[in-house]
Design a protein that fits this description.
alpha/beta; TIM Barrel; Lyase, Ornithine Decarboxylase, Chain A, domain 1; nine-stranded mixed beta sheet; eight-stranded parallel barrel; 18 strands; 23% strand; globular; binds pyridoxal-5'-phosphate; lysine biosynthesis
Length: 428
């Protein structure tokens, strides 16, 4: 606020703690480095913070990048990841996307047998791409259905426990020397470490079975996905990456003995706690005995929280117009957003110091999947995002993404085709 990045004219912005991001990457690296026998490529799941400066910082930290479509692939290339450190996953890759990925030498995990057939048609023998197959170990779901990728009927990967599927996977590898990797991403927020580790252990046993049947080490790498859940209740990063490595070691010790190269694809656990949203309180009002603070942070920036408030609760901080924490007596308040539908509330009936017009609320732990993934509802412009570094020695800020201009909102809303529909009725 002292720097003018938040204020009456700039009522909403996202912030990213660059030092914190680097520390999170170091924690991930250290956790796996405790298992010295194994080669690991840590990739960042681009969808968790699809901002080129974030991706470049992560590339600079030595990470790779997991992408799920042409847009994310473009961002990864622009951010400076070399193709060998990029992994393409997505359940609906087109032939053109596959051609591009194979031409670049990006690793590709096929999501189905159908996709294996397409890759087989397209690939040239000289392609540098590492090619894998995603499986669904069907170990079950966590507490958030939409985040559970290993249920019996999940749309992702080859459903391993379906009749005949395991045998078909083994045959598929046996017949294709170019297929060398197994991939599983067992779940995200709401899934326990035990559940995720059980899914990875199942994938490891499948790799062992394939190599045993084929008689050579056909599978040389296992991509274990991401999905470490994040604690949204306080400041502590828990579970830690080290807890996850311990859970994996308990379930599948062979994973770390160096016979398989590993790939990881963490997203939320690297970024969530390293970002926050600042939003101005434009008005307060009372309705039916409830105090409501109308802020600029709603479904356009906290989409999951607004639509599934029980699954995605956020901590809220309260600050006055100068940025000082408010410590007054607390009262029950709703923190509402600017969108025009009644459910646009980011915190329901929360006990917080009384908010006033011109105050700011902070939504913590929103560095992943929040302001980096805005929703265009109500044609609300995308808010600016700033990064910062240098805590004790004086904070330095840098723009990561500019606030969207109204010209850009109009352009994205068909400005250049304004007469398209009326034109359909004009006489030629
Ligand atoms: C979303 C996703 C990830 C990252 O999940 P997080 O919960 O953010 O760690 C990794 N791999 C795949 C295939 C994904 O779809």
């Amino acid at each position: 606020m002292a720097q003018g990045l938040l204020g009456e004219k700039r009522p909403l912005a996202g912030f990213l703690d660059a030092d914190g991001i680097r520390e999170s990457v170091a924690a991930l690296e250290d956790a796996f480095a405790a298992e010295p026998g194994v080669q690991v490529l840590h990739t960042f799941a681009a969808k968790a913070a699809s901002l080129i400066p974030v991706l470049r910082l992560l590339a600079d930290c030595g990470m790779g990048c997991e992408v799920a479509g042409p847009g994310e692939l473009r961002l990864a290339v622009e951010a400076g990841f070399t193709p060998a450190r990029i992994v393409l996953d997505s359940p609906a890759k087109t032939r053109d996307e596959l051609r591009l990925a194979l031409a670049l030498g990006v690793a590709v995990n096929a999501d189905s047998f159908g996709e294996i057939r397409r890759i087989e048609e397209i690939r040239s023998p000289g392609s540098a791409s590492v090619l894998g197959l995603r499986v669904n170990p069907q170990v079950g779901g966590g507490s958030i259905g939409a985040m559970s990728t290993a249920t019996a009927t999940s749309k992702f990967g080859v459903a391993l426990r379906d009749p005949g599927a395991r045998e078909q996977v083994v045959r598929t590898f046996a017949e294709r020397p170019w297929l060398t990797r197994l991939h599983a991403h067992v779940g995200s927020q709401g899934c326990s470490l035990q559940l995720i580790a059980a899914g990875i252990a199942e994938t490891y046993r499948l790799a062992e079975e394939v190599n045993e049947v084929v008689g050579v080490r056909r599978i040389t790498g296992i991509d274990i996905g991401g999905g470490l859940p994040v604690n949204f209740a306080d400041d502590e990063a828990r579970p830690a990456f080290a807890d996850y490595v311990a859970a994996l070691r308990a379930e599948a010790p062979g994973l770390f003995d160096g016979r398989y190269d590993l790939v990881t694809e963490f997203g939320r656990s690297l970024l969530a706690k390293n970002g926050f949203i600042g939003a101005r309180v434009e008005y307060t009002k009372d309705a039916g005995g409830r105090r409501i603070a109308l802020t600029h942070a709603g479904a356009q920036i906290a989409t999951r929280t607004v639509f599934m408030p029980d699954a995605w609760p956020l901590r809220v901080g309260v600050f006055d117009g100068e940025g000082r924490p408010r410590n007054g007596p607390s009262m029950v308040q709703d923190i509402a957003g600017p969108c025009c539908f009644a459910g646009d509330v980011v915190a329901h009936a929360r006990e917080l110091p009384e908010l006033r017009e011109g105050d700011f609320v902070v939504l913590y732990d929103t560095g992943a999947y929040y302001f980096s993934t805005p929703w265009a509802y109500n044609s609300l412009p995308r808010p600016a995002v700033y990064g910062f570094a240098g805590g004790t020695g004086g904070l330095r800020f840098a723009p990561v993404r500019e606030a969207q201009s109204l010209d850009s909102v109009a352009a994205e809303s068909g400005l250049h085709h304004a007469g398209a529909l009326t034109g359909l009725y004009e006489k030629p």
